[in-house]
Design brief:
Elements: H1 8-17, E1 27-30, E2 35-37, E3 51-54, H2 57-62, E4 66-67, H3 80-84, H4 88-97, H5 100-112, H6 117-128, H7 132-150, H8 155-161, H9 167-178, H10 182-188, E5 203-208, H11 215-224, E6 231-234, E7 237-242, E8 245-251, E9 255-262, H12 268-279, H13 285-292, H14 298-303, H15 315-324, H16 330-344, H17 354-358, H18 369-383, H19 395-402, H20 410-419, H21 432-440, H22 446-450, H23 455-465
Parallel strand pairs: 2-4
Antiparallel strand pairs: 1-2, 1-3, 5-9, 6-7, 7-8, 8-9
Helix pairs in contact: 4-5, 4-7, 7-8, 7-10, 15-18, 15-20, 19-20, 21-23
């Protein structure tokens, strides 16, 4: 299905079959009930004459439909079409998920993308039928709906956690859009044993994923690279410090449990978005397997059809990992990164921001002078806004800017693109492990081109098979 258009017959067949492959790709609106649903909604399939299909939840809400309380559209995995796109609208949607519009408004979002607000609005209307402001509002409402349904967080805290400026605005927006107040929704939500607020003010939320999902592979990858003093991970859980608190991610049968404790609940939307990217929950395993399964990687893909590319919680952090990890073992890189965090960590044991690392003395940690120079140059460019690794910059432009940093070559830039920029076709050129695995499997370099546009996933299959 094209990310720009919806075929009515295909969508209706998917709804009739409750096909989970289409969950998050579109929403079904029923004109007789004025409710919109996920394709997997267990309710009786409506007559085709009463159905409308929308690419984004914001489009359905702008047309006057409210979310179903039964299938809960707020739990849909992200649309893989937008997840894989590096164009302006795809990047803008990811920045909205990250809270950019909540922090600085649509004008600030446009500035982050280096375009005018008017041009951004025009692009959104052309692709989604609604502007970025409507998309940001729907994102806030759906997060609020999830918090009201799954947690015992007070309504006032829910308002600010979801990105609203005031409780009055929250109440008015929810009543206007959904036809009920936050308190009325909570009264009908049922028991909230899972996700209730504890004495430590920890919330538990469900992060839904697209199946199949190789949770063991993702968590094992993160565990082998966990930085001492910042992360604690094994095959069954991943925990780390985040701005203002901590998170723990635990795989469950059909979702990932996110336990989050933050002093400022306004950071919650950003935490959720970054956890989704960290675990690559919105990828399209069917499309990836269909392409790679027909190549020389077929046996590896068949063995692990739900393999994902682990992302990162912070782009600069991943870039530092990549630089420090040049030409040394994973274990050796962990040791050095632990020393960097121990010396340069920001208050709350956070990974240092670019400006902070720039001012930190990194000598005596086991890093070569050349590595230190590279880290300083990289930090200066990010601190000055010349490189954006958290979604604002076109991936190709970001890679070109990375290659201008002293000490960053094609492997490092490719690895950063693969994990931080979320480029599904990134390839870490010159990776020794990949070269050895390809040689052992009788694959020549011309095979790499056959793996487009999913070369990042090809790399993970090869790494995981070693």
């Amino acid at each position: 299905m094209s990310p720009l258009e919806l075929d009515f017959d295909s969508c209706y067949r998917a709804v009739s079959a409750r096909d989970a492959r289409f969950d998050g790709r579109f929403y079904t609106a029923v004109t007789t009930t004025r409710i919109y649903c996920r394709p997997i909604c267990p309710a009786r399939t409506p007559a085709s004459r009463n159905v409308r299909f929308y690419r984004h939840a914001a489009s359905a809400e702008a047309a006057g439909f409210r979310p179903c309380k039964r299938c809960r559209p707020e739990l849909s995995p992200g649309d893989p079409g937008w997840d894989a796109r590096g164009d302006l609208v795809g990047r803008a949607l990811r920045l909205i998920d990250d809270g950019a519009a909540d922090d600085r408004g649509v004008a600030g979002l446009a500035e982050r993308l280096h375009i005018t607000e008017r041009h951004l609005h025009r692009l959104f209307v052309a692709e989604l039928g609604v502007g970025p402001l409507a998309v940001a509002r729907t994102k806030r409402l759906l997060l609020a709906k999830q918090l009201l349904t799954e947690t015992g967080l007070p309504v006032t805290d829910v308002a600010f956690a979801a990105g609203f400026g005031s409780v009055r605005q929250f109440n008015a927006t929810m009543r206007e859009t959904y036809g009920f107040t936050p308190s009325e929704l909570r009264a009908t939500a049922g028991p909230r044993a899972v996700g209730a607020v504890t004495e430590a003010a920890t919330l538990r939320l469900r992060l839904h994923r697209r199946e199949p999902y190789d949770a063991d592979g993702v968590f094992a990858f993160l565990a082998s690279r966990a930085i001492p003093g910042l992360e604690v991970a094994d095959r069954t859980s991943y925990a780390r410090t985040v701005p203002g608190g901590t998170i723990t991610l635990t795989p469950q049968r059909d979702h990932i449990a996110l336990d989050v404790a933050v002093a400022d609940t306004r950071q919650l939307a950003r935490v959720v978005a970054r956890c989704r990217r960290l675990l690559d929950l919105d990828a399209d395993p069917e499309a990836i397997s269909e392409t790679l399964g027909q190549t020389s990687l077929g046996p590896l893909v068949a063995a692990r059809p739900g393999l994902r590319v682990p992302g990162t919680f912070d782009g600069f952090e991943l870039a530092v990992r990549a630089v420090v990890g040049q030409q040394i073992s994973v274990a050796g890189a962990r040791t050095l990164l632990g020393r960097v965090v121990a010396r340069a960590a920001a208050p709350g044991d956070l990974f240092p921001a670019p400006a902070h690392l720039l001012e930190t003395d990194l000598t005596g940690l086991g890093l070569t002078n050349r590595r230190i120079d590279t880290l300083k140059d990289l930090a200066a460019r990010l601190a000055g806004g010349r490189i954006d690794l958290d979604g604002g910059q076109d991936p190709a432009e970001a890679v070109a800017a990375l290659l201008e940093v002293r000490g960053i070559g094609p492997w490092t830039a490719g690895y950063i693109a693969l994990r931080a920029l979320r480029d599904p076709d990134a390839w870490p050129t010159g990776d020794l492990v990949l070269n050895k695995r390809m040689a052992a499997l009788g694959m020549t370099d011309d095979h790499i081109e056959r793996w487009r546009p999913w070369r990042a996933y090809a790399a993970l299959h090869l790494w995981s098979s070693s």
